[in-house]
Amino acid sequence: MFENLQDKLDRAFKVLKGQGSISEINVAETMKEIRKALLDADVNYKTAKNFTDEVKEKALGLNVLTAVSPGQLLTKVMNDELTALMGGEVTDIDLKNNPTIILIAGLNGAGKTTFSGKLANFLKSKGKKPLLVAGDVYRPAAIDQLQILGEQIGVPVFANLSSKDPVGIALEGIDEGKRNNNNVIIIDTAGRLAIDEEMMNEIAAVKTQTKPHEILFVVDAMTGQDAVNTAKAFNDRLDFTGVVLTKLDGDTRGGAALSIKSVVNKPIKFIGTGEKMEALDVFYPDRMASRILGMGDVVSLVERAQQQFDEKEAAELQKKIRKNKFDFNDFYNQIQQIKKMGNMKDLMGMIPGVGKMMKNVEIEDDAFKNIEAIIQSMTKYERENPMRFNKADDCVLQKDLVTRLKRLRS
Q: Residue 99, preceding bond cis, omega within 30 degrees?
């Protein structure tokens, strides 16, 4: 995520390396490089210029403390301004109403249906009772996709296969949700181009009839500045309440994340960081700014861990480790919990300093498969008695394990 932008910003900060103070000359040169980096990341030109002008104005005249270098001081200013550029503070989704109606809109292929499933899963984990409404009547298998996602996460899906009227389906879905006491109703809609007047009139009609409390505009982060232009066109018609950036785990340059708030003045509320249903994060501007500048995101890492690790289980595991009774069953369970936390490279990037070290390292999603295969090939006795493999008289166990592994691979 934002690896190219991180590299270019690092090179820009090197201009100040060895400087004893922040001056008009060295800041101007650094800002020039930062502006280039932002434009290469497909950030809106006006946004990039205003941003660098603001950073320059705040950086000039600052006193460099003995323990703080000019580069470190400028990094602090950059971090503050990046946070402000992306919205400043986190903006939560409005769930005060019962039921809360959430309308999902966006372009074709932006990931609206997948996001609808992720959002339902996220809200379910928060104690809500969501209902998904299949309002995309144009894309083949769109309804099937939503129903499959609903089954995976245990959330009901309302669909009317005999109707081609998105407005009618949305209203029927709301009635269904009210009958079943669903406190959140998520309406998935068809993808559409902003220049398609008929389709834009249709989504506007859905908004007028359903009176949603939240309208979330879903945009593919990899489309960069085009995403911002599209967001503006949709906002003019729908006046949406928030933005969702999907596919941030891909080869994204970051232009959408950095530009969209300043152009449409609407907050980014969620980001999609993978294909799994759990790969949805609330957008925190300050944390994202820290990650862009290569300072990691320990808070998000801890929160992900807390979601997957049970406190009682952790206490029991700690007792086992103290008594030297940690076995392969425990190790296997730990691997499964780590895998649920998300992409390994993304997790490593949350640790300060590690992201830069890992930038040219590829870690596959199935990085643990060999270890899992080894543990699964063991007998119950072997998994529960790992110390037996360290004893000379149990070499036969090790030889037998190697034989089984070879058999598995063949």
A: yes
